[in-house]
Design a protein that fits this description.
There is one protein chain. A seven-stranded mixed beta sheet has the order 3-7-1-14-11-12-13, with helices on both faces. It has a five-stranded mixed beta sheet with strand order 9-17-16-15-10, sandwiched between helices. A four-stranded mixed beta sheet has the order 20-27-28-29, sandwiched between helices. The protein starts with 14 loop residues before the first helix and ends with a helix. The protein contains 21 helices and 29 strands. Strand 16, helix 10 and strand 17 form a beta-alpha-beta unit. The chain has three domains: about 200 residues, Aldehyde Oxidoreductase, domain 3 (Alpha-Beta Complex); about 325 residues, Aldehyde Oxidoreductase, domain 4; about 140 residues, Aldehyde oxidase/xanthine dehydrogenase, molybdopterin binding domain (Aldehyde Oxidoreductase, domain 4, 2-Layer Sandwich). The protein has about 750 residues and is an alpha+beta fold.
């Protein structure tokens, strides 16, 4: 393979394996002879649960076991799941409610697991599950966003999970009282599903005195700790693995009750047990995303400089606290709430409500898309109400380059940024000057055309510490052990090429090892756009140690000082030899210096980076049908220095697709009884190829100062920018007919009704 240059658009090395059916996913690797598990799930959203009689089911053909909550308790498995808790405005803590592994005494959402049936085949387990009936005394279901209703948890009066706030609310109120202009906007951020290509699945096997647990996830170490706690065993007796994973998007970044139940069943039966979710089962039970309403207010001075911002949000978090649910619309929202604007008076409030719906948790961006959508939708609305150019309104309030590092009002310190430069480039890339002509052409064809922009910033999240280990193997290959977990982003390519760039090791000789808690004792996993930044920093430090140790070894071997590593070879004073790193590894092995062939380092970033950029969307609306077409889409990003531009662009494309999907077609709907009405792809509008235009992608980088590569994460950026860009374009198009803005998703029926209110009323 030809030598790679740095920051080259290298094609994905793993694609041949995936596209030829050689991927190794959970359903491919479950142990031979493993029993199959199927869950009995609640068919009602809220009710008192009667004990489930499993005696007849246990006698059915092929059934090896069946377990309800009381059976787990009899086995000594009394583990409950709890999410992170935020502080309330009054200083108290949010509601800390326990989530049982299997429903006990009460069911709280449709799809909640009540029992598990384990059989020799999946068909036998399903047949047995269909014989079961869970009897409930139904209670009123709560599905609205208001406090009150039938109590879901005794620990949460009026079903309030938390009431959080940040900022000096009195000072902000004073700023609004003196403002020349105040613009109010209501922003509805609709609920969506993650819908990864591969549903959730796992298997558990108790052997060799240990629990071996393999599942499709975003990191193994949190699950390792939780499994040890659940079964009261030492963490060294738990081995957790992630195989190839077909998409995660944040939804696979935390534990689910099924994982512990499968492990408990395997222990009780003394055989491996496997489980793979079906699509509708996943839609019912996978944690959803978004689902909040934000009332925003922007305060401007007489020169239209932004001087104040406040947001009052109500967030539906579902039936239980999921892992990070209470943090997403609070702490994570606050991280980028002020966006790219120099505004010092900001106040946020968020009221979290328990409902009889599936849990909400992290979904591509986790709090940052929600915050930027609220702000950038409000900025465009303000531009329209104030009668000013939305580009210029933003420019007036940008944080200037000479203000960095910039301590934000509520959260972190932005390290660098040149927002006006990026905005100017974006205006060229999207051909803003040509919009008037395109609008005229659309109008001549009887269509409405709208133009929308969003200037976003996001904060990379997650553990700032990561580890890398490089092993020169006996067969002449090199293994790089990483603490992150690919869910399809192309990590194998990025990491192998980066190591090759830094060392000269042929990329085809490098093997990436991930997702095994025995082989990799600690790691931060994947999430929050952290992976390449943190992992490459650790890899770079490991390479530095290898170079130093190899140089010292060559110096000893040649009785000289000053050995250097340059242009991928070592240069030895007084010698014409220029051995490569692989050559030196072979020498060290021949000399018995094997301690030089296994090198590991741990690094901690001083802070995370802040990707930013400008998304511009143009939509065309057919007023006769209400169909919205995204006709043009342009992205100009500042990701700092790019490690692999091709894969970065691919990540942006995927993120934009998910944002456009939420804006146009995706929407989770529950009826008044808490029944899910969008439980299949027949009812839930996944975005398709013809919903998306070709994307224009450009970069205008300002290198980050928080990591040695100067890079900024890109995995979630596309989604962060897309929601407001598309929404603002729709609002712009509707405004040509003096039609008020409507809420996402912009389905044909909704848009047509908005454009034809008199006919719709009939």
């Amino acid at each position: 393979m030809d030598k790679f240059g740095k920051s080259q658009p290298v094609l994905r090395l793993e694609d041949t394996r995936f596209l030829t059916g050689q991927g190794r996913y959970i359903d491919d690797i479950s142990p031979d002879g493993a029993l199959h598990a199927v869950f009995l799930r609640s068919q009602v959203a809220h009710g008192v649960l009667s004990p489930v009689d499993l005696s007849e089911v246990r006698e059915m053909p092929g059934v090896a076991g069946a377990f309800a909550a009381e059976d787990l308790a009899a086995m000594g498995v009394d583990y409950v799941m709890r999410g992170e808790i935020v502080a309330n405005l009054d200083g108290s803590k949010g509601a800390d409610v326990a989530r049982p592994l299997l429903a006990s005494g009460k069911v709280r959402f449709v799809g909640e697991a009540i029992a598990v049936i384990v059989a020799e085949t999946r068909e036998q387990a399903k047949d047995a599950a269909e014989m079961l009936y869970a009897e409930t005394d139904d209670l009123s279901a709560k599905v609205d966003f208001e406090p009150g209703g039938e109590t879901i948890h005794e620990e949460a009066p009026d079903n309030v999970a938390f009431h959080w706030g940040v900022g000096d609310h009195d000072a902000v109120a004073a700023v609004f009282d003196g403002a020349a202009h105040v613009v109010k906007t209501r922003v509805v951020d609709n609920r969506v599903f993650a819908n990864p290509m591969e549903p959730r699945g796992c298997y558990a096997d108790w052997s060799d005195g240990r629990l071996h647990f393999n599942y499709g996830g975003q990191g193994v170490w949190g699950t390792k700790t939780a499994m040890a706690e659940c079964f009261g065993i030492d963490k060294d007796d738990v081995h957790v693995m992630n195989p190839d994973v077909g998409g995660g998007f944040g939804m696979k970044g935390f534990d689910y009750p099924e994982y512990f139940v499968i492990a408990a069943a395997a222990k009780a039966l003394g055989r491996p047990v496997r489980w793979m979710s079906e699509r509708t089962e996943g839609i019912l039970t996978d944690n959803g995303g978004r689902d909040l309403i934000s009332d925003t207010e922007l305060a401007f001075d007489a020169d239209l400089k932004l001087i104040g911002y406040r947001v009052d949000t109500v967030s539906n978090i579902g039936a239980y606290n999921s892992g990070y649910a209470q943090f997403i619309q609070t702490e994570l929202f606050a991280k980028v709430a002020q966006g790219v604007y120099d505004v010092r008076d900001i106040a946020l409030k968020c009221l979290g409500i328990f409902t009889n719906t599936t849990q909400i948790d992290a979904y591509r961006g986790a709090g940052r898309p929600e915050a930027i959508f609220a702000l950038e939708r409000s900025m465009d609305n303000a531009a329209r109400e104030l009668g000013v150019d939305p580009w210029e309104l933003r420019r007036k309030s940008f944080i200037r380059p000479d203000q960095f590092p910039y301590k934000t009002t509520l959260a972190d310190t932005y390290d660098v940024g040149e927002f006006e430069k990026v905005l100017s480039r974006a205006k060229i890339e999207c051909d803003a000057e040509g919009f008037a002509a395109r609008r005229s052409a659309s109008e001549a064809a009887g269509k409405l055309r709208g133009f929308g922009l969003c200037y976003y910033i996001e904060s990379i999240l997650g553990d700032q510490t990561e580890r890398a280990r490089v092993v020169f193997e006996d067969d002449g290959t090199v293994s790089l052990y990483v603490g992150t977990q690919s869910n399809g982003q192309g990590h194998e390519t990025v990491y192998a090429v980066f190591l090759s760039d830094q060392t000269g090791i042929p990329v085809e000789s490098i093997r990436i090892v991930q997702g095994d808690s025995d082989m990799i004792p600690a790691g931060g996993g994947t999430g929050g756009s952290r992976s390449v930044t943190t992992q490459s920093t650790a890899t770079l430090a490991t390479v530095g140690t290898i170079v130093q140790q190899f140089a010292d070894y060559l110096g000893e071997k040649n009785n000289t000082d000053g050995v250097e590593f340059d242009d991928e070879v070592f240069r030895i004073p007084g010698s014409n030899e220029t051995p490569s790193m692989m050559d030196v590894a072979a020498m060290a092995r021949a000399d018995g210096r094997t301690e030089l062939l296994d090198v590991r380092e741990k690094t901690t970033l001083p802070a995370m980076s802040f990707p930013n950029g400008c998304h511009v969307a143009e939509v065309e609306i057919d007023p006769d049908t209400g169909v919205v077409k995204v006709d043009r889409y342009s992205v100009t990003d500042d990701f700092g220095n790019l490690i692999n531009p091709l894969l970065a662009e691919g990540q942006v494309h995927g993120g934009v697709a998910q944002g456009v999907g939420q804006a146009l077609t995706e929407h989770v709907v529950f009826d008044e009884d808490g029944q899910l009405l969008t439980a299949s792809f027949m009812d839930y509008g996944m975005p398709r190829a013809d919903d998306l235009p070709m994307f224009s992608f450009a970069t205008e980088p300002t290198p980050s100062t928080t990591n040695p590569m100067g890079m900024k994460g890109c995995g979630e950026a596309g989604t962060v920018g897309a929601l407001a860009a598309v929404s603002n374009a729709v609002a712009d198009a509707l405004a040509t007919r003096d039609t008020a803005m409507i809420d996402m998703p912009f389905t044909p029926a909704k848009v047509w009704h908005a454009l034809n209110p008199s006919m719709a009323a009939e």
